[in-house]
Amino acid sequence: MSFISFLDGAVAGAAPSASSTTQFLSTIVPFVLIIGIFYFFLIRPQNKKQKETEKMIAALKKGDKVVTIGGIHGVVSSTKEKTVIVKVDDNCKIEFSRSAIAGVENEKPAESKKDETKSEEATSETK
Fold first, then answer.
1. Residue 28 near residue 63, CB atoms below 8 Å
2. Would you list the DSSP string of 47-100?
3. DSSP 105-124
4. What is the pTM of this model?
5. How confident is the model at residue 65 (pLDDT cuts 50, 70, 90)?
6. In angstroms, how far apart are the furthest CA atoms of the chain?
């Protein structure tokens, strides 16, 4: 209904009133807020995750323990430009596309967590 009154004013040649401008802004503001929320909660985190995955795939090297998107665990035997050869068992090597690698298993963070808990225990004992 406010849009019709806006059109009536435009057809008559009169300038739109201040109330129609505020109504227009009140309809635009929620759309801008929704777009902002989508950007910060969906688009931006997804882009960050994609960049991290690309870094991880680019940094694959021989000896890395990996998991594929199919759930196969193995050790990288060799790398090529677009593929990775994963050693699954003593006599079994499978060639995967680099994009099929879901993640690299790291044992070092688990060890560093143990070191942190040991240092926390040591500081609590000294107090």
1. no
2. HHHHHHHHHHHHT--TT-EEEETT--EEEEEEE-SSEEEEEEETTEEEEEEGGG
3. E-SHHHHHHHHHHHHHHHHH
4. 0.58
5. very high
6. 85
